[in-house]
Amino acid sequence: MEPLLLKKTEDTPEIFFNPENDNFFISERSLPENAIEFYQPIFNWLNDYFVSPNTTTIFDFKLEYYNTSTAKQLAKLLMLLEKHSVNHKITVRWHYDKEDADMKDSGARYAKLININFEFIEY
Q1: Is the pTM of this model over 0.90?
Q2: In the 8-state DSSP scheme, what is residue 21?
Q3: Largest Cα–Cα distance in the chain?
Q4: How far apart, in whole angstroms, are the C-alpha atoms of residue 83 and residue 68?
Q5: What's the CATH code of the domain at 87?
Q6: Which tens digit of pLDDT belongs to each residue from 34-91?
Q7: For residues 43 and 96, what is the distance between their CA atoms, to the nearest angstrom?
Q8: Which DSSP symbol is given to 70?
Q9: Which domain range does residue 46 map to?
Q10: Are 61 and 96 within 8 A, CB to CB?
């Protein structure tokens, strides 16, 4: 399967999903004008990936900031991961700056809502 790479812009995060190397990263800032439109290709790619996924999949979220519309798309993405975690081992690693309590709390809220293995990584 071809990797998915979306380079970051001023308003969109970097997305790097490469199953061959077990790299699944979303990082930087996510403030797209149309979050639904921006994240749709990511959902499409993930649906294709889960037809024949790796034995173990680890998703790294290392976001500095995201807006409300992104929060909804992240919840949708995490629910998709939760759905597939029934048959596959999936872990979410939520990275946060040690001085950014809001980002840590955001991850904790998702961890409570989504039944999936969450790890919190302070940097």
Answers
A1: yes
A2: G
A3: 39
A4: 23
A5: 3.30.750
A6: 999 999 999 999 999 999 999 999 999 999 999 999 999 999 999 999 999 999 999 9
A7: 24
A8: H
A9: 4-122
A10: no
